[in-house]
Amino acid sequence: MDALDSRTDADAATRHALAARLDDARRETDRIFALVRAEALAQRPIPERHRLIFYLGHLEAFDWNLLCRDTLGRKPFEPAFDRLFAFGIDPTNGNLPQDTPSDWPAVDAVRRYGTRARRAVDEALATTPLDASAHEHLRGGWAFHIAIEHRLMHAETLAYLLHQLPYEAKTQGPLPTPAPPSPPRRMVEIPAGRARLGLDRRQDPWLGWDNEYDAHHIDVPAFAIESHDVTWNDYLAFIESGAYDDPAFWSAEDWAWKTRTERAQPLFVARYGEDWIYRGMFGEVPLGPSWPAYVSHAEAAAFVRWRGQALPTEAQLHRATYGSPDGRERAYPWGDGPPASRHGQFGFQSWDPAPVGSHPAGDSAFGVTDLLGNGWKWTSTLFAPFPGFVPLPFYPGYSADFFDERHYVMKGGSVRTDPSLLRRSFRNWFQPHYPYVYATFRAVEARS
Ligand code: AVJ
Ligand code: FE
User: Fold this and answer.
1) Which of 54, 89, 157 for mutating ligand 1's site (highest number of atoms within 8 Å of CB)?
2) CB of 431 shorter than 6 A to ligand 1
């Protein structure tokens, strides 16, 4: 085989793998939009975010803008939509978007735009070189890979958006089955050791998002961490003790948020008389005592302060998840094999969480359970660049716009996180007063 043939074959393999992943990701986001009754696309289920119709256009505009318009220099066929749907919004204090449904184009026009954008992206993927001769951003399929992961992240953010859509505006779907009692609380001792955070730019230059670079070590002193996520049984004890309504356990900003929003309990639960219910994706059910408590960072922080404990730092959580008694780090808590459904509640299999401790096959080397899936885990670490951070050349604001000391790192993944985003270096982040994400937490204690 001559050099040209082998080059072409390697290219073709990359191309086919990317095309298959893009198809899967599109199927996932199409499936989410299919849950929404047509007229409800004009709704804004979360006041701080765009109306649903924005996301219908955004997923396609993002891919087209990045791959076809900006990288390959193709001529825009609908430049106004390219701009309208380019970027979402992050809530800034008290400034809620004020647009009305009539400010947006018709659904049919957005769908037509999406069809054209997809065709152009497919054509680009089928014909553009991805080897060493390719555009710098396309080598090894880099920008295609980023576009796919962007879509997969939105498959999750759309799920939590639609979680807040009134049930009448959605199709029907499964309800979680009743949960067993919450297991007893247990602390797991993690000896002092090194956490190796991030991705090595020389080894994996095109694998991750900008905030994952560069690799570095953090020495973590001994600590203890809860073996499982804080459950609703645990969290209700906090509420029923009165501490949820006691400013002594809240930071000043967190208390101001709680008061301003008149929060009497976390967003995902409600109280009818004596009964607690869970507001599931497709309906309300009695609250499962052993489901992980989905709460905001502020609510997690107040709970651990009440207990006299703390939230883990990013490095502590990393070490509990990937570290091992022999000092080696694993690719995943259970070892180096790829994620499978027995390892945890993730990967779009379910809409609501499983009882904690349902996936012992996914336990970490230290014996900590459910570290990947069933809810992102809040940390006490502000989202900030790793040493050696360089903004993504074709999306410089992806992370850098959020290095503002107003976002906290979450690790681990939720029920609606794609397995590819469970890699060790992946980082997620949200504001402490943003109660909508599928995020839970567990407490740590310092040792020695
Ligand atoms: C990484 C989940 C915080 O939803 O704001 C999607 C992902 N950025 N489009 C977000 C994202 C731009 C981002 N998170
Ligand atoms: Fe986006």
Assistant:
1) 157
2) no
